[in-house]
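User: Predict the structure for this protein chain, please.
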Amino acid sequence: MTIDLIDKKILYELDKNARTSFSELAKRVELGKNSVITRVKNLEKGEVILGYNTLININQLGYSTYDVYLKFVDTTPEKEKEIIDSMLKNKDVWFVSRVEGSINLAILISTKTPEEFYKIWDNIYGKIKKYTQLVRIAILLEYHHFTREYLLGKDTSSRSSAIIGKKEYIEIDDKDLVLLKLFSHNARISLLDLSEKMKLTPKATRERIRKLEQKGIILGYKINFNFEKLGFKYYKLLLTLNDLSIRNKLYDWIRNKPNVVYFDKFLNGADFEFDVEMDSSDKFFELLANMKRDFPGDIKEIVWFNPTKIFKSSYF
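Assistant: Here is the predicted structure, written as C-alpha cells:
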C-alpha cells in the first residue's frame, strides 16, 4: 500500500485525537470529507491503522500495572504460539506483544493489590515456566505518549504528550466503568452507539465523557499504528546510567527527538527507558551515537530490543 503525504497528515491528526470527526479531519488536511472517509477506510483495510485506543489512566482508579518480560527457552514455534494464545485468552492480561532481541514476550497485568498480582502471575508462570525465562517484573509509574512529529517532519518545540501516572485515587460508578470498557475497545465508537449500549441519552453520555476527561482518567484517544507498514521499526531502549542526576536533561533531550514516541518510568526497571520508531537502522545508530556524544561518561550501558507485533491491547 502506497502512503502519501495526505495519508500521513491523516495519521498524524488521528494519533493526536482518534475521535476527531471526519468533518474536522477534512478541514485539517484540506481535503473533502468523502475523500477523507475513503482514505481512512483504506488505511484500516491496509492494516496501517489496526484500531483506535483510549488512553485510560487506570492508576487513578487504584490499579498498579506490572510489566513482565519473558524469554522463550527450549521451545518450538508451535509451543510459542500456544503460550501466546494462552495470554490472549487470559482476561487478567490486557497487553501482549511479541519481541525480538534479549526478550521474546512482553505482557501487562493490572491489579489493585500486590497479592492479587501474585496470585494471577503464579497461576500463569506455573504453566509456562518450563518454556520461559523470567527477565523482569517492573511496576509502571509513568508512561508518556508523545505525538508523532516524524510523520510530517514537524518541529518538536510545541509537541504534546499524554502522561499516565497516579495523581490521586478517584472512584467511579458502574456506568463510568461500562463507558471505559466500551471506549477501551474502540475509541472512535460514535456517541449514539455508546449511548445505546449504556442505556443513557447522548447528552448524559457526553457529560460523563467530559467529566472523565476533566478528572484525568481519560487522557486521550490514539490510533493503534502499524509502523512497519510505513517502513519504520520499533525500538525499546533501556539505559543504565552512571549519573542518575542527568535524567531530567535526558528527558528534555528525547522529548526534542521527533522519532521518540514513548517515555517509561518503572519501579525495578532500567534507570531510563524510552521508545523510538525509526525508518532505518543507520538512523537508529546515529541517534545512539548522538546521545552518547551529548552525555559523555553519563551512560553506562544501552540495551534495546524490537517489539514486532502487538496481539492485544485493551485495559478491560
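The radius of gyration is 20 Å.
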